Records
---
Amino acid sequence: MSWRENKLIRIKTREGKQGRIKFLAVFFIICLVVIIIRLFDLQVLKGGFYAALAIGQHELYQKLFPERGSIYIVENNNGQQILFPLVTNKDLHMLYAVPADVEKPRETAEKLFELFGWPEDIDMKKVEEELFADISVNLDPIMAAEIKQTRLEKWQAEQQEQEITRLESILAKANDPYEPIRHKLTDEQMETIKSWNMKGLAFKDEIWRFYPERGMGGHIFGFWGFDGDSRVGKYGLEGYFDQELTGEFGEIYSERDAWGNIIAIGNNSLKEKVDGSDLVLTIDRAIQYQSCQALQEYVDYFKAESGSVIVTNPKTGEILALCGAPDYNPDEYNKVKDVSVYNNPAIFDAYEPGSIFKSITMAMALDTGKIQPDTAYVDTGSVYIKPYIIKNYNEKVYGRQTMTEVLEKSINTGSIFAMRQITPKIFAQYAKDFGFGRLTGLELAQEVAGDISNLDKNNEIYAATASFGQGLNVTPIQMIMAVGALANGGQLMKPYIVSQIINSDGVIETFKPQELKQVISAKAAAMISGMLVSVVENSYTKSAKIDGYRLAGKTGTAQIADKNQKGYLGDSVVSTSFVGYGPFADPRFAIIVNINKPQWGKTGEAVAAPVFKKIAKFILQYYNVPYDSK
């Protein structure tokens, strides 16, 4: 081999080595770039995810849920005062299925139906009404019973098959890891299901609000419902005191080693949960129950659309009873078809009060000294306030009448006469002093302020119509507190329904009666009370009279304003009311009854006054009030 060939071989060998070196260099550069990209992805783009995984392995964080506070009333038991729960908590269970693990969907569905029966949302009363709607009342009773039985059995068979098929379809879903089946299972129901030893059924503990007293008025309590994935108090006390009832959440934080054990010298912390506070109400259990029952009885009897009752202690402002109709059961709040039922009519429904407002108008005029109970005027049947003519109910003409007779006969022109003695401006200021047009501050969610803004307008017509309860909107709670001031020597009190808040540490916050304003003098209050006693004793309002007692009261009947346009819904669409208190010498209670859109009756004397009488009679006996000495 020549030296030229040998040199050529050496050159090629050197070039090959350099090529391999370049290839390796490029390869390592590419690997480095890949590693850098991967590190960027892991540490920057996905850093939070893997940090969370690391925290999950090396740190422990758990939220501590406080126990929601209960709601109580005070009851006397052999001379001792005890707390009786109206709202509390109950540990129940939720049944859920893992359909992927269910081996016998049909058999499981049949056993679940056997245990639970119909779906929770079926209203059997409504079902029967629909099934039997075409059965004539004149049909032979035996034949009618047979037809009803046949139809009901057929319906039950069809519904049973539908429900079992529905459950089976849920349990047969392939690869489905979770399907909720039923809430609020008792311990006994859970143990029964466990005894079946069927795969794919499991349970989860749940805490539910429990309202043990039926017929006590759901509007007071509200409910503990869902807002997204969390639970919050809504409406009533549950909504107004949600923060106090909820308490404060706690948390546990600690570091763990590779085996999951807590590191004693690690960064550990504990924030204790604070259980919710308990509420103690001013409500009297017996008066509340009787009031709600009486209201519902007469709403049903007159086929009315809605109604409300409030009973107060006029001397303190304590709410002894508060009911609304239609009512709902807070345990089953999700079954309500119309969410407007949640609104408490006693504090939410602003309405034209009608003639019950005449008692307030007379109290104003008496306080100024411009009239006396025997002050007279001549009624011509109408009053002209350009360009309007205001007439009495049924266009009656009464002639010469005293102010007491104006209340007894509920004369519109007489109320205008009393208002004119004090001028519209002073009338408007008194209305504000009595609390109309602003919130009373009662501790229930969704209170509205009403509307008396018309009284600020520079036109006498607004004060004239307001003097007999038209052209202004008030709430029942405002009306009863204003009338309560007449019973309380002219002193307006703040209403309250919670007497105590008991914190989880045992500290008790007590609420006392709160005086707001001396609206009228004690002398004026005594005079108007005497006039209202005469109304019950001597007028057509005798359906509110109770033998042996002098009670003060006034009826009201007003057309319901059309919310969509000016004017009213029609002569036949009315709001009937009665407000009163007693006994005259030492008032122990004040009651307002409001019943809207009765199908018949149509007057406060016929519809609302009997409710007042029934409740008042019970309270007088319940308190063992001696007969009046006249």
---
Amino acid sequence: MILLYLLKVSACTLIFFTAYKLLLSKLTFFKLNRIYLLSTLFISFAIPAITIEHQKEVIIHQAAPAQNIVYSNDNGFEKDFVGDEKAFIKLNWAQILEYGYYFVIAGLLIRNLFLMGYIGRILKKFTISKHASIITVKSDSKIKNCSFFNKIIIDAALKNDERALVIKHELVHVNQAHVIDKLIVNAVACILWLNPVIYFWRNEIYSNHEFLADEETADSADKKQYASLLLQLAMPSNNLINSFSKLPLKKRIMMMYKKPNSNLQKSTYLIAVPIISFCCLAFVNQKEIVTMKVVAQKNAGKKDIVSVNSENTISPDINEIARTAANRIKEDTLTRTNHNFLSGVADNNLGLNAPTENVEINAEVKKLNLAKDLVLVIDAGHGGQDGASKSQSGIKEKDLNLKAVQILKEEAEKRNIKVVLTRDKDKFIPLRDRLPNESATAFISIHHNSMPRADLKVPFEGIEVFVSQLNPNIKSAEQFGTDVLKSLNQLNGIEVRDSLKNANLLVLRESKVPALVVELGNISSEKSLAYVSDEANLRRISNLILDGFLKFSKS
């Protein structure tokens, strides 16, 4: 999140600025101070943007070999709901705050651009004459005795000796391109507007510019006369121009008369090295790249090793394999103990029964939540305002979906499979609210196709299974889908596509557990609709889906 990044940047600026105020701000090495203030400002933005990757290898043993995964090239009909969801989507306060932050940044940047235009208009109004890079303005001009980019603005009422001192001072600003520093720090102040440190940082850069100009000007002028002129011409400060004399002046005059520090004290700037190191340790992003080696037992003494890479945390595939091993151990245990032992223990996450014993597969994955019963989350697609399609006789897909999941739940409960429904009545649920908890074993969203013959020359009228190849957990989803498809292919009376289909659907793409969308038939076809409207057929389909689910959970 961008706000977290900016928070880290602000923390870095606080550390660097504290070191500057305590150790460097009173030194007379003004050029080095300028380098420090600018470079550490860039470093503050760079450190939180750095990501360091760490490699880690985890070996997981799996008894069953991987199956070949086959995809169909046909396009899918099912699409995410794109209607007016404003009334149903919960207010995302984090996103609102983020957009509000960007709005303020844009406002501040526009303000700076407006000020630059304002300065240009004032100069145009009060200009008396122009000579090379010097602009002479009337005495009543609000902008005078200053520099703006490569232009020096002089009050026409100044005496010749005063005029010479002002020009010499402002030439330092122009020649050393101090306006670039000002533009940079003002842009940063717009970005970090909520960070109070950046305003102090900006003032230090402005002050350092004046120290640099005063140092060079005072070398060839009488310091007393020069200090007197500073007091005489003092004006309120402006963020975008380099004024000859800005209030307050006490520190400038003190630094002008201060004895220069010895070169030995330049070693103080080495303090930046441990500070940068500390900020790197504290604010550099850490990413763990886990290389998982799955050892699949094929037959006597022979093993295949498959490597999979995952970022940040252990891949969801590992969760599946670990859960498989846990289930295998749990089944062996249950054969020797009373099956009713599990019935009284409540699952903390889902409100379901779970065993009390903790099963560890190996030291590498001991933190994974392994001792969970099988939990199948079933989603009745669409609902409420999202009615989806209708059959020719007016039957709504959302109603067929709800009827199918209710039967699927009934059949699952007969097998003591724990089921959670995303909806049990006709109501609208945003897609993200349908996504299952990570404690679930798998997720199935039930739908029905609706493709009239006008859309396709030969419409597919049977059952299809979808996964999303954009999901990082795709390997487990493919295995799950393949097991369900193989089981469904035992059906008679309706065609079942014998290959998976890929679909960019939110519930598939962003699910944290293996997820499928199952299209139970084409309700634009009277034959298909008649088949899936028969309760006996729905119970047969439900049991075959559950067969595939159980096979997947035990593999």
